[in-house]
Amino acid sequence: MRRLAWPIVFFAFAGSFTLVASAAAPQPVARIVAGAKPCGIASSAGGVWVAAYGTGQLVRIDPRRNRVARRIRVARGICHLALRSGSVWVASDKTDLLYRVNLRRGHVAARIPVGAWPADLEFAFGSLWVTAYELAKVVRIDPRTSRITRVYQVGGNPAGLGEADSALWVALGRNGRSLGRLDPATGELTKTDIGRTGPGFLATAFGSLWTTTADGYAVRIDPATRRVVASLPVPATPAELAAAPDGTVWVAEKERNTITRIDPATNRILDVTPAGRGAFALAVAHGDVWVTSFAGVDVWRFRPR
Q1: N or C: less crowded end of the chain, CB within 10 Å?
Q2: SS3 297
Q3: Among 249, 130, 231, which residue's Cα sits nearest to residue 182?
Q4: Residues 6 or more apart in contact with residue 1 via CB below 8 angstroms
Q5: Which residues pair with 38 in a beta bridge?
Q6: pLDDT over 90, % of the chain
Q7: Coil, strand, or helix at residue 11?
């Protein structure tokens, strides 16, 4: 296991990097083995749930003991998940299905074909929304019936989803440079150029939309004005973002195995902290931030300082 070092901040000056130690950076307080390639993560009152891509299992972590308390076999390739009303909804890019898992009974209650590469899930406007990355579509599902109610053709490669300014926002990834604002009532889509290539994950935090891009940035957008507020370098392959209990925005970076913290008050990077192998997805639960290690087997629990 790699030895932890002091977190560092990278400041770029004329193409070089200056390293600054940060004793105030968050520290890992636990590492929980969840199974091969822990991918998506979400929290509920009953614990922290992780989709293990490599084993095809949903894993519940007991946050009091930092131990796995339950495993439910679902399907190979499961990753992105969402929780609502006693169910975990989780998508697989190996089967192109969305699975509804009944937590009381511990079994798959519904299988919904959503199209090639379901890239993200989001509960919004009384529905569950799923992106079909390879089909340029967003699928809307009624969570009461587990049935598709509408399919929206959005173009490009829709990846992350987020709710803001009375609309559903879609990151149009791969070679795209835009976020799409989808009106849930009319289906009208308007695009906003963010000035960076390959927006992927989306998050809402501190009154803004945030996305990470394939060319190595975390971008902040004002959903009301549809303008870019800040664009901060997160070199290599930034993944998910989340608003943390310490009032900062955290960004996972899976190629260099790090967490980057951003101060939303100043739009500046505070520090870059070592994390698990392939740091990928984030969840905030029980006052801490949980990070999956997609290239490994564990989930890291960080305590903001």
Answers
A1: N
A2: coil
A3: 130
A4: none
A5: 52
A6: 90
A7: strand
The three-class DSSP label of residue 296 is coil
- What residues contact 75, with CB distance under 8 A and at least 6 apart? 56, 92, 94, 95, 97, 99, 108
- Tell me the one-letter amino acid at 270: L
Predicted confidence (pLDDT) at residue 203 exceeds the cutoff of 70: yes
Please tell me the distance from the alpha carbon of residue 128 to that of residue 258, in angstroms, as a whole number. Answer: 31
Express each pLDDT in 13-23 by its tens digit. 223 333 333 55
Distance from the first to the final alpha carbon of the chain: 24
pTM score of the predicted model? 0.91
For the chain, the residue count is: 305
- Amino acid present at 128: L
Q: Which amino acid is at 225?
A: T
DSSP string, 174-239: TT--EEEEE-TTT--EEEEE-SSS-EEEEEEETTEEEEEETTTEEEEEETTTTEEEEEEE--S-EE
Backbone region of residue 165 per phi and psi (left: phi > 0; alpha: psi in -120 to 50; beta: other values): left
Q: In whole angstroms, what is the distance from residue 89 CA to residue 102 CA?
A: 9
Angle among Cα 18, 23, 24 to the nearest 5 degrees reads 110
Contact assessment for residue 74 and residue 98, using Cβ atoms and an 8 Å cutoff: no
Decide: 273 and 9 in contact? Cβ < 8 Å: no
Measured from the Cβ of residue 126, the count of other Cβ atoms closer than 10 Å reads 10
Distances (CA, A) of 90 to 40, 96, 165, 207: 9, 11, 26, 27
Cα–Cα–Cα angle for 148, 164, 246, nearest 5°?
A: 120
